[in-house]
Amino acid sequence: MMILVNVGLRVIIPIMIIMVFVLMSLSQPINGDIGWLFHATTQWLNGKELYVDIIEVNPPLIFYIMSPAVFFSKAFGVNPVLMAKLYLSFITLGLTVIHLMLMFRVVHKNLFFNMYLPCILLIVFVIPGYDFSQRDHLAILLLLPYLTCRYLKFFKHIEFNFFTIISLGFLAGLSICLKPHFILLVISCELFWFVKVKSINLLIDAMIYSIILTCALFYVLLIVCHYTYISEMVPLALATYWTYGKSIYSFNLWNYLYFYTVMIFISRFIESESNRILIVFFNILIAAAFINFLLQSHYSYQLLPFKTLFYINLFVVVTSLLGQVSGFSILSKTYYFISFLLSFYYLSMYMKENWRLFEYVYDYRALPPFHLMGYENLSDGVSEINNKFDGENLYVLSSNVWPSAFISGYTKAKWVSGFPALWPLPAIDMYQRNPEKLTKDKIVRISNVEKNVISRILLEIEIYKPKAILIDARENPSYFIDDFSYLEFFREEHMLSKVFDDYSDSGYEINVYNRVKFKVYIRNQ
């Protein structure tokens, strides 16, 4: 019986978790940011200049990471959405395997295979949901092997070969280059172990040199090949990108902070010294990850590093406590059996509800259409755009990135703007209509970039002469503080006032979101 339970936990449950992840991926449209980055990388490889023709706030590393996916998509004729999902999934799987190989030296063998393996698969592949493989998600997975290696070196006194040390340092360096805020996690890690080992000489090793060298080479690349990111994009982002993000009260943080406080308190009562040190170590990293989140725009994907570290630490805390309960063994047959039954039940129920997606992929060798995912209106939007604007240039007035991913990834129309969304406009609108709400510093910053942004929008429309302009006509579009109308903004803005002289209201609307229709203005013949 125990053999069957072990096989279930070590083989069946992990396979089911991966199948649930695949079903989740099939049941959701591509993440808007990822869809845009794939399209932007394609345009960059086709000759457009990054940070000149392509307006993006993120450092260039993500474009280099995405480049192989674009190459494979072209070489094998694979749908861009499918290729982006497959490629990022394999990267995530590879990084997860590296982490597991290191954690095998931390967690008891039976506990590792029966509990930690399925738990980390849930944490990495299922919990992120729609935010899977976002930049912050990839960054924490790049950093985890380094963090685990530091614990193994300074507490377990395990030495690694030179190639492993350099490689893990390289991955950590990539993490910082991908998300510069992650330097906080590295600093927190090194400070923690400095307090423990009380020797700077032990800390400054080949891994640290590898991190420093990787970051140095990246910033040389940034200055030499992408200096416009520093000279143009950073000032534009500082001036206007602050309007983006959500309120920190929308993330249910109090529950996390409550359990985090409990973990800090409980760590004092963990009998196993190795587990106690690991818990304290992760508590420090969780705090750094939370500060990292607060310093950014407050998107759900920016909380993934915090969640990843939180849930890993929660696993260590729970298993440590259960192992201390008199008469109960965390390695007991009963515990494993109950865990297997519960996991099998919930995973199988999810698979049963969504199995039709697997059937569609098997029958048609294609991604499921939107209506099978439950997004019937998006299916209508794809049909309308393909019927009316097949091969035509489209321009979209929206402050959200999803339309760029939707049009470039799912339709036959062409997304021609260098903007993923008109993200500078919410700040510019506030500057024009409510300057009293802004600090003097923000007023100066916005005034320095306003003309360039407006000129850029006008130039794109004049050059590409889009067949249609789709407009988010909601009273309060995404990220605008007050009610806003793109049509009124264009008509009142001197440089843009004549744009719609060449366009007429078509009288119909197109679903660009599942529940939001955009007005369509057609270019006059």
Automatic annotation (TrEMBL):
Protein known as: Glycosyltransferase RgtA/B/C/D-like domain-containing protein
Keyword Transmembrane helix applies: yes
Residues making up the signal peptide according to the UniProt record: none
UniProt keyword terms in alphabetical order: Membrane, Transmembrane, Transmembrane helix
Transmembrane segments: 7-26, 86-104, 111-130, 162-195, 207-230, 251-270, 276-296, 308-328
